[in-house]
Amino acid sequence: MGKIMMLIWIVLAAAVVVVGFIRLAPVDPFDWNTQPELSEDKEFRGGVFKVVRTGPEGLHDFDRIASAAPRTKLLTGSVEEGMATYVTRTKVIGFPDYTTARQDGDLLKVYARLRFGRSDLGANKSRIDGWLSLMPRPQD
């Protein structure tokens, strides 16, 4: 019985260390405030890249939506700079996902990806599709 309790305490301590690392790992905003040079939608195993015609105010509207989203905060950049990166954390463990939005003329380019692991199980695509569905449609 004593060995089983010791094993339980070791597993519990390891879990606390892992969760602590996920929550407290240092972040260099300059490493995340970037995007690949793509001109069309693309899905990755750990994220998604979306290109949307929004008009010149797209980043402003996106910032309003992202800033109001649960567990999401601005990491770096701004609407005035033309590019902003947000971090969204999962509810229980706090896994961070990073979303970078950049205004490129009338196009809004959104790049969402995970930090830890290999697959986000579609969480980034789902979140970005939800945010983009709240965007106003550009006037023709």
TrEMBL record:
<protein>
    <submittedName>
        <fullName>DUF1499 domain-containing protein</fullName>
    </submittedName>
</protein>
<dbReference type="InterPro" id="IPR010865">
    <property type="entry name" value="DUF1499"/>
</dbReference>
<dbReference type="Pfam" id="PF07386">
    <property type="entry name" value="DUF1499"/>
</dbReference>
